[in-house]
Design goal:
The protein has 142 residues and is mainly alpha-helical. It is built from three helices and no strands. The mean pLDDT is 86.
């Protein structure tokens, strides 16, 4: 059942050499593929770590956004309080300005305004002075 080949050995050697060259080339290719697979494994491990970190950070995002929302609500509330206080302070400053203007006006002496407000007293006083003066002059003249 075994067949004997009656081919010259040189013909077989050439085929063996060709097969050997093919095997060497395949071993080189396999070696390159192993190196590439190793590099890919390393890259996958690094990227898995990065992805794990990103997923962990993203899982914390809702809590962080909730905290940020609470902080913004607190700030808004504080701004509303400050706005109310500022409005009150503005009104107080306006009231103080009006009072200062009134005090400033009262501190000025306006003779025309005083005469206008007290003209009756002035006429009665002038009449009294004239009457008393005329009586004194009458007594000295007699």
């Amino acid at each position: 059942m075994t067949e004997k080949c009656e081919c010259p050995i040189a013909a077989h050697e050439q085929r063996f050499k060709s097969v050997e060259d093919d095997v060497i080339e395949l071993k080189g290719n396999v070696s390159e593929l192993k190196t590439q697979v190793t590099n890919i494994d390393k890259e996958v491990a690094v990227k898995n770590t990065v992805f794990a970190t990103a997923i962990e950070n993203l899982s914390k995002l809702p809590d962080t956004l909730g905290s940020l929302k609470e902080a913004m609500l607190t700030i808004q509330s504080n701004n509303n309080v400050v706005a109310g206080d500022l409005s009150k302070v503005t009104q107080d400053v306006s009231d103080i300005r009006l009072k200062l203007d009134k005090v400033d006006e009262e501190g000025k002496f306006n003779i025309r305004l005083w005469i206008h407000d007290n003209w009756i007293v002035l006429i009665i006083g002038a009449g009294t002075v004239i009457d008393v003066g005329s009586r004194i002059v009458e007594r000295f003249v007699k």
